[in-house]
Design brief:
The chain has about 80 residues and is mostly helical. The longest helix has about 60 residues. It contains two helices and no strands. Helix 1 crosses helix 2. Helices cover about 90% and strands about 0% of the residues. The chain starts with a helix and ends in a 7-residue tail after the last helix.
Length: about 80
Amino acid sequence: MTDEKRNRIIAAVTVNVIILIAVLAAVIIYQIVQIKVVSKTRNDIIKEIEYLNQQTQINKDTYEYYKSEAGLLDLAYKYGFIFKK
């Protein structure tokens, strides 16, 4: 093998290694960005679930109140019903 051929092979291998490193770096950067996006979305969804659970509990409490006699009486007064003794 001549020096010229050996130098060509070394240059080709070096270029291929540099291209491989650049591609791997791009893939790693892309993966890090995707992980951050998914993490933010996950946190947003968790906050939304907590908010909806709170709203559900508030609605259940309101429903239970209006099912009771005191709640029904309050609604009746609110809509103008007048009760005589």
